[in-house]
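Try it yourself: sequence plus CU-O-CU linkage, in.
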Amino acid sequence: MEESIRRFARTVNATPEEWRRGRLYPSMCIRPHVIVQTTTDSITLPLDHYRRRFLRNAALLGAAAMARPLSTDRFPAPDLAADICASPGPPLRKLMIPGESGYLGQLAPRGMPVTLTARPRKDLRSGTGTLEYTASHRGRLYSNPTLVVERGERVRVRLANQLPESTIVHWHGLSVSAGNDGNGSVLAAPGEVYDYDFEIRNRSAMYWYHPHPHGRSAGQTYQGLFGTVLVEDDAERSLRAALDLIPGRTEIPLIMQDRRPGDSYLPSPLDLARGLIGDELCINGVRDAYLDVATRVYRLRLLNAANARTFRIAFRTTGGSLAPFTLIGNDGGLLSAPKRCEQVFLSTAERVDVLIDLRDANVGDVLRMDTLAFDPMYAKVAEVAAGDHAGMGATGASESGSMHEYPHRWPEGSPRTLLELRVRKRVGYDRVIPASLSVMPPIDVGAASERSFRLGFAKGRWRINDRVFEMDAAPIEVQRNTVESWLIRNYHTSMPHAMHLHGFPFEVLGRETSPDEIVTLQQDPQGRLATDFGRKDTVLVWPGESVRIAVDFTMPFPGPQSYLFHCHNLEHEDGGMMLPVLVA
Ligand code: C2O
Ligand code: CU
Ligand code: CU
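Structure, out:
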């Protein structure tokens, strides 16, 4: 631990103490220094695995990309001497707040059918990728619309595929039948459509949608295909009324995706092993954003839409000290009671709903939403992979040789300011955060049957229970209308995996043998974190850790229904770290 802190501190020119605290970059210098990964070398995936993907991606990008050689020096060697902070930092841009049309605009279907057209983006803007879902509704045009729906509402969506490859939309977090889940077993080919028709059975929360064609989910999502679903109900309405929250003004969605320069998705072998980590953060499609605020309570609804990056979210005052915030909801909606927090980890696909109270701020103050420093705990991946290939002899490793690592400018776990909240106006505000937010009976595990999962790496692939995904593989078989208790164990020589279950929101029962960074954030004797409360659909399992969850497999759909359990690090998912779950 000490050694890794020292090592990481060196790479960002910080003292170990600064690294541990999470070094705050001055506002003119919010980008970290150019640094080199600590485990740069020699990880290799079988070349054919890489080549297959490269060709597939290249096909999507057209012939120009094909012309690029698949050589060992595609990525320039990291420049140790470069220091971005020597030049002024990037100018901050105003955060885009989704409105009633346009990018991420709020679209309330209210029973009317909606067509989402997956297509190459018409107006190329940096920060949003090259693909989009367009929709037109009641005379308004949308790109990646935010679907606003009521619990109990019937939703009819037609996906029209105008991409040059197959796709399908998955409704992440929603409890729908397998035919509506978009689990990838049926795809819409180029030019085809796929029709969804389902009822919203979930609690109010921010859910999301993204592509799920196996092997291509990462690339399509990275290239811009994702949007959110806001489910509303009475609990939601009373919260807004109590705190005078107005969506788009004092309630702001923050959809976060890290991106690399250029728009293509061309992961290196190491990216495939660890997950693709970008150099810059886009929030609602805007890089390096700021938001003007007043002296009152704001609700921020965060979605980590990154392919692989985990954030360690915290807020800092102008002076640099941590400003506590109130966590009111997680993946599956409002908690039963608010929780005061100083920081939370947010892995890919997870959501947090937070309140920040700026009543004591002065006009001119800046509150920064940061990701704090942490050890991403994947130092072992290269060794594991290398050892694995050594064991495989001449196949793969020798052929692909040593590819240079992508020269990361913002490695996972290095600190950065994500958003500046600039206090511009003094207003009177005297609302009180309600002590109770929603009613959520615990899942009854009295009669639950047990099942366990091991997460690990072997033969060049991340695996669940030593298996990788195949479309017709024997599924995990679950009996409908029963409760199961799942123990998810991650090897010490692994990396964090964001485990996600389709169709059934779960409850986190506890964590064991967690790494130090996690232990310090645990909130109860079961080892749970603030982000473990309420209903979840994705849970980050750290190396060496065991996480226990309770899942209620009650469902109204006739006949067997097929879902998925997978790592939401999209490179891991596409690589096969996924198992089918058949609920019969
Ligand atoms: Cu958001 Cu199967 O994924
Ligand atoms: Cu999902
Ligand atoms: Cu994973």
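One thing you can check immediately is this: Residues 126 and 185 are 33 Å apart (CA to CA).
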